[in-house]
Amino acid sequence: MRALVIDDSRAMRTILSRLMQGLGYDVEAVGDGAEALDAVRRGPRPDVALVDWNMPVMDGLEFVTRVRKVPEWRDITLMMVTTESEHGQIVRALAAGAHEYVIKPFSPDDIADKLRLLGLA
Amino acid sequence: MTMTVGDFHYISKLVRDRAAIVLEPGKEYLIESRLLPLVRERGHDSITDLVADLQRAPHAALRDEVVEAMTTNETSFFRDGAPFQALTERVLPELIRARAAERSLNIWSAACSSGQEVYSIAMTVRDVLAADPHWRVRLLATDLSQQMLTRTREGCYSQLEVNRGLPAAALVRHFRRDGLSWRISDDLRQMIDTRSLNLAEEWPVLPSMDVVFLRNVLIYFDTEVKRQILARVRRVLRPDGFLFLGGAETTLNLDDSFERLQIGRATAYRLRDGKASA
User: Fold this and answer.
1) Quick check: A85 and B76 CB within 8 A?
2) Which end of chain B has the least Cβ crowding within 10 Å, N or C?
3) Which among A82, A104, B254 is positioned nearest to B269, based on CA atoms?
């Protein structure tokens, strides 16, 4: 299984990458939505992407929206991992096509739990 | 069960050194409630015995178990997943058919703690029955602790608590932001009655239950009390009702009037031959 970690914070990329590796994933980590789109295009395609919301160049919501427009990418599971915690923001992300949503700060178990909900851990 | 000041210091230092979690004085109850299952499992009589064991021969496995018991978040929404899937796929559909005439269900969360279990049941019931006005579904949430019952009634959860196990779709559907917390909808809160109840003592008169959630609570009691509790469950459970225990719990060798039933990945228990005993 492959995971794509998308976050502009290097520390967060490291934390999430280690966490996903611990769950048995091969991990690629990038710093914004545009780099993430390149990574998906280039392949190998990830099974799951952990997506921060607020990032330079292209934010997480835009990334999710763009991924969802490509039928061949519909198998990619998208999980927002963000400090955005307003009700309306979560609704927007889910409406755009995110499958799950984890609010920062989170504990490692939260990510594993959500992956389990999605049948991915 | 009581613990000494020395026990407290030993455990809190162990947890601080190994998990960076600080247990202030006053958290003795937390240590007791988390370590009691381990004390029983290891055949000790008290936390003092457990600590003595650790001090005598500080073996890594036991130390790890203590730290894990102290740091594992013991409650979450949809904890363990499988029982709620079983509710959706089999238990509720079967009971809805069986109760088609009376259109009423009673479900009990017997050690409700801060309420995540009973609200997970409420969300599941709401998904299965939608908001069918013809059905009356009552959820009883009981606990020993008044503080926990108050939390359950309030239905207000921190960011960390809603991250845990709760699907985002359920969060936005059933919760609203309330300052830094999330509050569950009045609609679901109104399905729930809370009541103080000590499982180990005589129970008050309870309605007959269609489903009983008695999860991760028998582990705190010795064999005799477990038997008494299961005997009382037998009396409140309707003959075709379902009992859910925690993953590490069973009625086996305790009460043979229950039979085990596998529903997907969940284990449920039913009264043998659908007969309740007096």
Assistant:
1) no
2) C
3) B254
